[in-house]
Amino acid sequence: MIFLANVTLPTAACSIGLIVCLFVSSASSQNCWGVTVGFKPLTELTSTTYRGYQGGLYPGGRNDRPLKHDTCGRSLARQITPLTTSGVPDPTGKIVLLSIGMSNTTQEFSAFKVIADSDPRKNPSLVIVDGAQDGETASLIADPAEDFWETADKRIHSAGCSYKQVQVVWLKEADSYPTQPFPAHAIALQSELEAIARLMRSKYPNLKIVYVSSRTYAGYAASALNPEPYAYESGFSVKWMIEKQINGDSSLAFAGANPKAPWLAWGPYLWADGTTPRLDGFTWQCSDTQSDGTHPSPSGQAKVAGLLLDFFKSDPTALPWFVNTTVADAAGIIGSVPTQYSLMQNYPNPFNPTTTIGYRLATTAMIRLSVVDVLGREIALLVEGIGQAGEHSAVWDASSMPSGMYVCRLLVTPLGFSTQLQVIDSRKMMLLR
Questions:
Q1: At which of 288, 322, 356 does a domain end?
Q2: Which of 47, 76, 97, 213 is the most exposed place for a label (fewest CB within 10 A)?
């Protein structure tokens, strides 16, 4: 959450009026018995509900963005370009990716910055700035007069950039010591996140995209700072805010003559039920937290950093501005792709031995849907020929393949255009035996 790591203050020093006491690490060691709370991650809560509320990251219990929202995000991503400090497009300018949030956010994003800055596929025009800060809860930074925003501007300036070059934000926030029952506290956090989104749009005039993540697992928490089920339930705050924008709420409009907020979407989903593996194998061990059971330890920071890097290097709305398009990955996939044709997240993922791969076509087109290994070698051809406009799916049976990472690749040529197929979209898939 928003915590002052490795700081212990006397009880007498704390009061409701002292912000410094909001997120103080507990002197107690983490609760390493708390290996599970028995909740399903939102990403797996697709056919059931939590206390009567639908799961999935997006409407309809799905984990992929609705087509219209996704298309808008891809279009905005292609508009992100290097800017001068005055906000004028210039090939020698910079693109700022900024983090906004609490102490957990700054710890995780700082670890991400280290590995991202050393990654050869990172766009050389991209400047990563950690604007997140200790002790800054959602309720605090929803106030435009909060010192948080001045400090963030100073950090942007220290990186040699200006607020006019901020075009993408990773937002991760929460509140300290929640006590209200569900869904009241989640609704309150949702309202604060919405206020922060609008505030960022006013402070950063060229901000186009905000990716939002919710809390990590808090079953090991040693205090009431932000334990379970509040950490888990904060995922609904993010889900409901994004869904509100998707449904066209004017207070979160990102398009038109007077946009109120940036385009909002999920970043990586960080919660897992302790040591119970998610479908992708992701877990949270007690050793992934500091002594308070709430802040991430170095291994926990590294886990989030890895999820962030993988997200920015693979999500279609991040590829155009995050990836250095002169450097191809092992599968031979470079840069961004058109918005009208795309892959959806395969399900299940990880899988064994079959998975269903969905894809969208805006118009009738020649397509080739295949699977390649990490060396770029095609190992399965799933669909080849003319595809009609709409949503489609194909099943890959990997019974004969070893465990590992594979890449599903969609190549498309709209009818009436060039006869050469183009790499349109790709998705990583994990086969686990």
A1: 322
A2: 47
What does the pLDDT read at residue 224?
Answer: 97
CA angle, residues 8, 12, 13, in degrees to nearest 5: 60
Q: How far is CA 182 from CA 189, 218, 224, in A?
A: 11, 16, 16
- Residue 259 to residue 415: CA distance in whole angstroms: 35
**What pTM does this model have?**
0.75
Closest CA to 225 of 291, 276, 282: 291
Q: What is the pLDDT of residue 378?
A: 86
Alpha-carbon radius of gyration of the chain: 22
Q: Do 167 and 282 fall within a single domain? A: yes
DSSP H or E stretch at residue 48: none
The pLDDT of residue 13: 35
First to last CA, the chain: 35
Q: pLDDT at position 41, please?
A: 97
Same domain for 139 and 24: yes
- Give the range of the structural domain holding residue 298, as residue numbers without chain letter: 11-322
Low-confidence ranges of the chain (pLDDT < 50): 1-27, 327-339, 418
* CATH code, domain with 347: 2.60.40.10
Structure tokens at 80: 């992100």
Instruction: Give the Cα-Cα-Cα angle 346, 214, 258 (nearest 5 degrees).
Output: 90
Ramachandran assignment for 430, one of left (phi > 0), alpha (psi -120 to 50 degrees), beta (any other):
beta
Judgement on whether residues 253 and 377 belong to the same structural domain of the protein: no
Give pLDDT, residue 432: 87
Cis status, amide bond into 183, omega within 30 of 0 = yes
Query: Quick one: 296 and 243 in the same domain?
Result: yes
Query: What's the number of domains the chain is made of?
Result: 2
Tell me whether residue 328 is in a domain.
Answer: no
Beta-carbon contacts of residue 18 (< 8 Å; ≥ 6 apart): none
Is the alpha carbon torsion for 71, 73, 74, 80 positive or negative? positive
Looking at residue 81, which CATH number applies to its domain? 3.40.50.1110
Nearest of 43, 71, 78, 27 to residue 236 by alpha carbon = 43
What proportions of the chain, in percent to the nearest 5, are helix, strand and coil? 30, 25, 50
